[in-house]
Write a structure and sequence with these properties.
Layout lengths: L1 H15 L17 H13 L6 E2 L5 E6 L12 E10 L4 E10 L5 H6 L8 E6 L10 E2 L5 E3 L5 E10 L1
Antiparallel strand pairs: 1-2, 2-5, 3-4, 3-8, 5-8, 6-7
Amino acid sequence: MRNLVWGLLCFVLLNACKKDSGCGYSDQKIVAPVAEQQAVKDYLTSNNINSALKDSTGFYYEILNTGDGTGTPGLCSQVELNYTGQLTSGHVFDQANTAFTLGATIEGLRKGLPLIKKGGHIKLYIPPTLAYGNTDVKDNSGTVVIPANSILIFDITMNSFY
């Protein structure tokens, strides 16, 4: 299932990404609609999550540990992390220890991971537009694992990047 989610993620972004010099990834400058931002805020409020901060693109985040070292990952960086991804219902759709190129993932992760350094720990609350939008994500058997228009919650520890 993890490979399916990351494979779909890479396919969508590689086909939608504007190419530039270097590694080929560029800032998409996507901002979630106000209604989606409000839905994330409502989720946080109803779950007494008061420490989350709002990014200008519309996702919310809690930095649990900033990490150490210098620098943060860029779009061309290979990131190695442990994560759990879940829906607002609490259903865990994926968890793994994995590595990927930051630019080849959903916008919410592309913007959220550079907020921490190596060893950092962050929770991201990502509205649909910065995740999979109005597209269902299915596993190999055709079962929907992430319904369209879902708010995603990621609990991430970044082990390394280069």
